[in-house]
């Protein structure tokens, strides 16, 4: 009966796997589009990328092209929103980047290689009078296509960096998705500074190595400076009403406000094949030996 107990063991392991979160829907002009219509679909479910040298840092695992992804036309100056399946709940900053697609290449074909990425948004923590940090944890993140951005095709990349497991015992986790856009209108701005991904974060940045639970009073989001032509954004708020999505997210019962984002380690639906616990199934990173709940840590 060895095979039976093995099967039971695997089933038990599979049911312990926890959900993280993945930015899977794009909202523009009041329309919340179906999952992965304009966002490249990754192949690692909602697990993070942690290898600072990997091309997976660009548009997530399996996201080097977007063959099955459509490209949305937006106007420079338009606002847009990324929505995740469940609210982001690992403490850390949120950034958005863009990269212009080289001429002769479609947005779907572009792999994001080269020194082409510029940052349009950083959302770091706020510190109250007593020094307690509040992170921009939400299910939706809204920003604006810079009004002076030259017209053309772009990748638009959202990145939430989970630094809840302090380095070096823990490894910061990148939660990433890329949308494919054709920007109309626009201006003659010169986006920059331009960086390459990987390479844009080396692992020595204070915003990467910081322990947010000890003497944590200030924070600088890693990566390049935000392009001066960009105009900011926000976490949370309305993501607009849902269109008739043929493919709604599996979990929509999650909280949308940061204050209740402590109950979101929900079980994933049973994987089709499981050989071991998912690499970051316990949410704590490869070597995490500390707390295994997110509620209240450092608060
Ligand atoms: C996507 O397109 C690229 C470039 O045409 C091609 O090399 C790759 O095999 C395609 N991938 C899929 C999954 O169709
Ligand atoms: C906080 O500020 C100090 C002084 O400028 C700096 O050395 C440190 O790297 C900052 N910490 C973070 C996490 O950004
Ligand atoms: Cu997690």
UniProtKB/TrEMBL annotation:
Its cofactor is Cu(2+). It is an enzyme of class 1 (oxidoreductase). GO terms for biological process: cellulose catabolic process. Keywords: Carbohydrate metabolism, Cellulose degradation, Disulfide bond, Glycoprotein, Polysaccharide degradation, Secreted, Signal. Residues 20-217 form the Auxiliary Activity family 9 catalytic domain. CDD domains: LPMO_AA9. Transmembrane segments: none annotated. Its EC number is 1.14.99.56. GO terms for cellular component: extracellular region. Its main location: secreted. The keyword Secreted applies. Residues 231-258 are annotated as: Disordered. It catalyses: [(1->4)-beta-D-glucosyl]n+m + reduced acceptor + O2 = 4-dehydro-beta-D-glucosyl-[(1->4)-beta-D-glucosyl]n-1 + [(1->4)-beta-D-glucosyl]m + acceptor + H2O. Coiled coil: none annotated. Gene3D superfamilies: 2.70.50.70. Residues 1-19 form the signal peptide. Pfam families: AA9. It is found in: Secreted. Residues 240-258 have a biased composition (Low complexity). One of its GO terms (molecular function) is cellulase activity. Has a modular structure: an endo-beta-1,4-glucanase catalytic module at the N-terminus, a linker rich in serines and threonines, and a C-terminal carbohydrate-binding module (CBM). Lytic polysaccharide monooxygenase (LMPO) that depolymerizes crystalline and amorphous polysaccharides via the oxidation of scissile alpha- or beta-(1-4)-glycosidic bonds, yielding C1 and/or C4 oxidation products. Catalysis by LPMOs requires the reduction of the active-site copper from Cu(II) to Cu(I) by a reducing agent and H(2)O(2) or O(2) as a cosubstrate. This is AA9 family lytic polysaccharide monooxygenase. It comes from Cudoniella acicularis.
